[in-house]
């Protein structure tokens, strides 16, 4: 009995030997290299002992020379276990089926929990999620990961400021922070209106208060425009003072540029990965593109509540193309102007208006166009002040 | 005569050179763990075995082990491990 486990794996048989000279039989076995263990005597001429399954044939040869009769009374070990398994095929199949079902169910989404949202926002979120394929009963491999879902939700639903997305087990938890949109009339200001920057006043609409400047006046930053004090009575000043303000911007634009552009063609490969070894299960060809980008998506398989060390990996190859862009002098100039205008508009409040544009300076240096522009803008320059 | 002379020679060697006696003289080495195990090396085969008695052939003479509920746990050409409740170990000279 070198190792009990080895015996269990190889399979062993309990033999009952009956007849005279059982001891001689055991001696013969030992001399013929047949491992014998757990020898027991039951009465004068009966003994039982264990031998390995692979030694059964040799035991028969040995026993032929003795006067003993052999009976095989018990079978134990892995080979017999397998045999039993085959006869109880249904049970085995049932176990496999059960494991498969648990496996599939562990990889599904079973709950969507949204917290901190008003009913209508919650409804919208659910609707968006459904569009993304996130719903009860969806398999987790085919949906985006939480970060992507978070980004998409924030992009698509404008009434939420932030949303926390967490996948815990089989449930998605969403923590919503809604925008508290301020009421329009809450613009309570100070007792004065002052200029926010240097300007020439073009128009004035004073609702409440005493104007201290008039149209075409040149005002500097911080200068009082409207006072809320009328006959020693303090009021909140309210109104709009439109003034012409000036902005300067510089744009540098290369005449020639190269980009990597996606052509829209792509190829997918699917793998099952264990540690660092990836086993392809779908998509065996090499991508036929000369230039491509690789997107990898790795997700563990789950069983019950554990992440298995087996991963499903999707690799997407997207074809890219080098695109060259070159401008002539005039085109570059126009483009630079457009860019500058866009940039300025992003900076200005919505009700501002660009009145005029002047090119101060334009030059070509190192294959780049450098343009300096001057803008005249009409905007509200009044800001409340205590 | 030669056999006896050889025996003497071996005994002298083990005494003087401090060699283990069981190797030089082919004697059995018996290890017992309380009453429950007995482990015999250098035996020459099983003579009789029942649940109360085990008789082993040695190079010289026999070894008789008596007790209760004997089970041979392992048996190899020169080793045997017996389990049970051992009460006597007797050498029988021929």
Description of the structure:
The complex is a heterodimer of chains A (386) and B (94). Chain A is an alpha+beta fold and 386 residues long. Chain A is built from 8 helices and 22 strands. In chain A, strands 11-9-15-21-20 form a 5-stranded antiparallel beta sheet. The model of chain A has no long low-confidence stretch (mean pLDDT 85). In chain B, 21% of the residues lie in helices and 51% in strands. A 6-stranded antiparallel beta sheet of chain B has the order 1-2-6-5-4-3, with no helix packed on it. In chain B, 18% of the residues are buried. Chain A binds chain B through residues 1, 22-23, 26-27, 30-31, 36-41, 44, 47, 49, and chain B through 45-51, 70-77.
**Which structural class should the secondary elements of chain A be placed in?**
alpha+beta
Strand order of the largest sheet of chain A: 11-9-15-21-20
Q: What global shape of chain B is seen? A: elongated
The largest β sheet of chain B comes out as: 6 strands, antiparallel
The whole-angstrom Rg of chain A is: 43 Å
- Unreliable stretches of chain A (pLDDT < 50, length at least 5) are none
Distance between the termini of chain B: 18 Å
Shape of chain A: elongated
CATH architecture of chain B: Sandwich
Q: Can you count the helices of chain A? A: 8
């Amino acid at each position: 009995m070198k190792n009990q486990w080895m015996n269990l794996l190889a399979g062993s048989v309990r033999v009952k030997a009956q007849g005279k000279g059982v001891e001689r039989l055991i001696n013969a076995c030992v001399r013929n290299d047949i491992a014998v263990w757990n020898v027991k005597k039951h009465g004068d001429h009966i003994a039982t002992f264990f031998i390995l399954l692979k030694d059964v044939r040799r035991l028969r040869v040995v026993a032929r020379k003795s006067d003993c009769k052999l009976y095989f009374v018990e079978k134990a070990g892995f080979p017999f276990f397998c045999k039993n398994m085959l006869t109880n095929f249904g049970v085995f199949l049932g176990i496999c089926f059960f494991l498969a079902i648990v496996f599939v169910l562990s990889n599904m989404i079973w709950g969507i929990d949204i917290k901190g949202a008003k009913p209508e926002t919650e409804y919208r979120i659910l609707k968006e999620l459904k569009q993304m394929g996130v719903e009860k009963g969806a398999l987790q491999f085919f949906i985006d990961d939480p970060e992507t879902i978070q980004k998409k939700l924030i992009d698509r639903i404008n009434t939420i400021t932030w949303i926390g997305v967490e996948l815990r087990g089989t449930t998605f938890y969403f923590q919503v922070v809604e925008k508290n949109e301020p009421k329009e009339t809450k613009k309570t200001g100070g007792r004065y209106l002052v200029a926010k920057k240097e300007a020439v006043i073009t128009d004035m609409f004073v609702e409440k208060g005493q104007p201290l400047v008039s149209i075409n006046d040149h005002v500097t930053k911080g200068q009082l425009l409207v006072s809320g004090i009328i006959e020693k009575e303090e009021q909140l000043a309210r109104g709009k003072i439109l003034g012409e303000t000036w902005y300067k911007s510089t744009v540098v634009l290369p005449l020639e540029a190269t980009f990597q552009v996606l052509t829209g063609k792509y190829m997918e490969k699917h793998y099952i990965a264990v540690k660092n070894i990836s086993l392809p299960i779908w998509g065996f060809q090499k991508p036929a593109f000369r230039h491509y980008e690789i997107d990898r998506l790795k997700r563990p398989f789950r069983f019950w509540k554990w992440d298995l060390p087996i991963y499903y990996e999707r690799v997407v190859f997207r074809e890219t193309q080098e695109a060259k862009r070159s401008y002539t002098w005039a085109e570059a100039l126009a483009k630079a102007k457009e860019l500058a205008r866009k940039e300025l508009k992003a900076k200005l409040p919505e009700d501002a208006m660009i009145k005029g544009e002047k090119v101060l300076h334009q030059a070509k240096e190192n294959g780049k166009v450098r343009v300096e522009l001057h803008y005249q803008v009409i905007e509200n320059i009044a800001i409340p002040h205590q | 005569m030669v056999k006896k002379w050889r025996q003497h020679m071996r005994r002298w060697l083990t005494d003087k050179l401090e060699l283990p006696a069981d190797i030089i003289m082919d004697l059995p080495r018996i290890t017992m763990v309380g009453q429950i195990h007995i482990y015999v090396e250098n035996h020459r085969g099983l003579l009789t075995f029942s649940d109360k008695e085990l008789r082993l052939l040695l190079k010289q003479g026999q070894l008789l082990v008596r007790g209760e509920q004997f089970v041979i746990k392992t048996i190899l050409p020169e080793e045997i491990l017996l389990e049970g409740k051992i009460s006597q170990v007797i050498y029988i000279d021929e």
